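hi! just following up on the protien thing from before. the input was this:
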Amino acid sequence: MHLNLIRIQQAVAATTVAFALSAAAQTTPAPATTPDATPAAQTPATPAAAPAAAAPAPPTWSVGPMDISGMIDVYYSADFNRPNAQDNGQINDLYNFNDKTDQFNISAAKFSLNHDPDPIGAHVDFIYGRTNDFINAAPSNSSSTDQLNYIEQAFLSLKPIKAKGFELDFGKFVTSAGAEVIESKDNWNYSRSLLFSYAIPYWHFGVRTSMPVSKVDTIGIQVVNGWNNISKSNGGATIVLTNALTKPKYQWNVNYIGGPENSLTSNGFRNLIDSTILFTPNAKFNAYINYDYGQNRDGLITTTDCDSATKKPGSLAAREIPTCTYGDTHLNHWQGIAAAFHEQASAKNAIAGRFEYFNDPQGFETGNAQHLYEFTGTYEYKWLEGLLMRAEYRADFSNEDVFGKGVGSYVKSQQTLTVAFVAFFGPKR
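and the predicted 3d structure came back as:
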């Protein structure tokens, strides 16, 4: 069934306004005035000094029951290859959210509304910038035909009081796979890894659940409409299984995603195994290892449109509509591994590094059959609460000439320097 997200947005907005009006109606009465306990005859001749004014309370960033948060992420990137706009759009090849190079750009501007389930909750993320272009596959930020434009997440939550931690979400939500997330401030490096950009989906639409099964282990199951889409053309559901094991010195997350992802047919499955081990030996140093293996089996497509010469005729039994079948059942696969560390040198200074290898032998994910290597080093400085600066050097290497250089030239490597500023606010910093 094709869902109209515009109606969902209108419903969420109406719910938010209703929450705010309800909170405004319940105005807290002013505290009663305490009588002066000192008799008039005992009032000292010299007036007592007025008490010092109390420090202003920190902002709550909320409207009624809805918590408000936001983020602005801007950057300048310089590519040593100086790619030309005529060839590839003047971008850092194989990047996603900060791909525009040799210019200033907005990676993301985000505004969020959240109400934790008690037992009902809701969450909406509005997002703008290059991040929106990638996660919603919109040709531009002004696209009026893409119903997903500017929505990162929008879901309702249910957490029954007596359900021992069980939670259910319905709507659009980010994927549970991967070692990194969409928001740069919550990652160690500024640019996203090859695994995040190509090995896994960004988000799903459907139902997800989570349930603690012990003090250290949480499992979950999701039934969704596949990778990065609200409606599907093949009618098949995708299943996501999750497990999170949390120990004092490490956390191990495993995700399996499987289902039909080929357009116009339910034949052929896409499978993904994602595993991340996060090491937390102390408060200052952390590290992780992330491994992904994915495969997609192409599916044969049966159609009544038999005009194409590449299609193979099917059976034409009596009273049957003529059909044709085209395509193949070729198996595409990809895999990669990434290792990263983060050192909080002081309250304001931190450094991070990442190395990864990605193999795309059929070019299914990157568009070219190739082996890729990547190294990233990032320095972070916290100017003040809610404002980060990051300076990053990154080098990418391929066994094929895939990186644009100058005008009409392609080479096997790419080096970039990026400086970014990320400002954010909210109830939790």
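Residues 1-52, 138-145 have pLDDT under 50 and may be disordered.
The chain has one domain: 64-425.
cheers
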